[in-house]
Every structure is written in C-alpha cells, then in structure tokens.
Design a protein that fits this description.
17 helices, 389 residues, 7 strands
Length: 389
Amino acid sequence: MDGSYENSLEIEDDTDTDEDYSLTEYDVTTFPSDFNIKTIFDFMESEIFKVPGFQRNYVWDLTRASKLIESIILGIPVPQIFLYEKSKNEFLVVDGQQRLMTIYYFMKMRFPKKEKRYELRRIFDARSRIPDDILHNDDYFRNFKLKLPEKLPDNKNKLNKLNYETLGEYKNTFEMRTIRNIIIKQNYPPDDDSVIYEIFNRLNTGGMNLKPQEIRTSLYHSDFYDMLYRINLDPRWRGLIAIPEPDLHMKDVEILLRGFAMLVGGDNYKPSMVKFLNKFSNDARSFSEQKVNYLENLFDSFLNSCQNLNERAFTGKTNRINISIYEAVFTAVCGASYDEEFLNVPPITKEQLNSLKDDEEVKNATISKTASKTNVETRLRRAREILAV
C-alpha cells in the first residue's frame, strides 16, 4: 500500500498471528470465466469489478501498458485475473489490477501522470471510479497513444501511436478478445469475508503482505468507518498514542475499532479477534447516522476524560501501545454512558491507570493469548473495579 506517511505505530499485542487466518475453517470455490475486453471495461465502469483500496497505486509506464494492449490485439496470451466474489454483481480484484486499469485507461484514451498517481488512488478509493472532470484534466492525465517500437523486423508497426478510437480495423478485434478470469467464492462461513486476507497475500503478485485493517477498510467501508478516520486525526488522540500522523498500515484505526467493538458488541465476543472485528465492521455498515454521531460524541467525552493523562498513556514497558489496556479502559469508562445513551464519561487519573497496568491479573491477561475470551473478560472486569465505574 502506497502512502505519504513514514510513521509506524508499534503495538504490544499478539492477536495478529497466523492462527487467526487458518484456512481449515473455510470452504472456497474457484471457477474460470472468460470475459471479453468490452465486457471487462463495462464491468469496471458500472463498478461490478472493483479495485479495493488495499491495492497499490497504478505503477506501469506507458511502454509497458502499450505492450499489454498490443498483446491483446495480437492474441498473445496474457496472465489471468483473480477476482473475489464479495456479493452478487460485486467482485474485488485480487490479482490483475495493473492489467485491468491499463485496459480501462486505454479505452478512456487517457494515461495517468506519474506524479499524480497517489492522489488519483485516493480519488478512486473515495468514488470507486475516476470522475470525468478529473479524467479530462490535463494536470492528472495525458492522452493515451500506444508507445511501441517504430519498426518491426519485416515492416512498420501499424499500432504505434494509435489510441482506442483510431485503432480502425483492430478496434473490434481488441474489444472481442477475452481474458481468463478466475472467480473465487467463499461458501463457508457465509457471513465472514476474512478468508480474503490469505487469498490476497497468497495470490497477489505485487509482493505485499497486508495487515487485517488494511483489507478490512476496503471490505466494510461505512459512515462508521468515516467517523473512525475523523477521530483518528484528533490531536488529543494523536497525543495519547504519541504519533503525530496516521499510521501507514492503519494500526491506529484498528485500536479505535477494537474499543468500539468491545463497547458495542463485547458481550458476544469470542475469538478470534480478527473475525470478531470483521463481523463488527460488517454490522456497523447498518449503523444509523444518529448512532454514528453518538459514538463520535462519546469518544470526544472519553478524550476529555483523559486530559490528565500523559502522552503515551496507553504504552507498556516496551514503549509500545498496549491495545489490550486501551480496549479495557475505553470499554470500562464508557460502558455506563453507552448503556444509557449519555455522554458523561468519568475522568481517568494517572494513578488509576498505573494501578491497572501494575495489576497482577491484568499483567497475566496481557502477556499471551490476549484475545482469549477469559483474558478479555479479566481485563475488563479489573478495569471496572480499579477505575471504580
């Protein structure tokens, strides 16, 4: 994932482990489907094919992009595309983004300028497409004319410098060529998309290993998630975690998510943490505007209750953020207010927080298997007792 921040948030937590992604609990089906180029373009235009936000920026140069178009026209086989079927008529691109975006840009007859690609990625994430006003803005794009060798061994290259509309006799040939698509569908469990973590990391040729929150952000975008992004920028929050800019891999957003997930749905918690957060994120897509606003205001009250705490208040002895401590404190002090839909969060003192960190039961519940139901319940119980809420 390409970003502009160099900051990296260190978290003291053991829930992000391979056991959370065990594939033995899943039933996955794969099947081939050959779509022609025109259909692929139409699917991208209508957002049936979506390039998720965890994918990297478009990185191909004009020469490489032109060679792909030439290969398609000439009937030279191109690598297959892997798609994850998220729901009916909604497919996420797992592997093949560069090829698909090249086809899309060529048929739009516009090629993205290198210096604008990160910005274009953000626009694409926000709107799921490139708006026409941006597409035709010469600050972002230039005309897409094929850049191929002038001469072939025996004759002149007829495709060089052509665009989509000037392909002439080759246009229908190009549109009707097919690319093999491998559709991946998760059959079980039906309400949990977490298998896509392993599917992406095993199949994607971009060489990226993604953190759960990076993928979760794309799968479960909602008004609630937009709220998480807003509060993640609050200077008071940035002070508590002592990192000035948002984390590249969205670890700070995941800390916030865990707090809200435990506050709202903690009574139904069962491991793994990854699956719990996935389900909560999916459920949060149906949160009303009123509920999202209330949770945002509740977090504001929580930050006010932390005003007497130092920076790095939720760090452990390793100087890393102890997400388990934060989760317990946030849930404990906000619980009564949430149950009654009030905003009266009691203040937290340094002495209370230090007592919680030094508590033997809490220490034992944060050393290992932090996501076990017993340890989660122990931390929350002791937080309520020590913080007197």
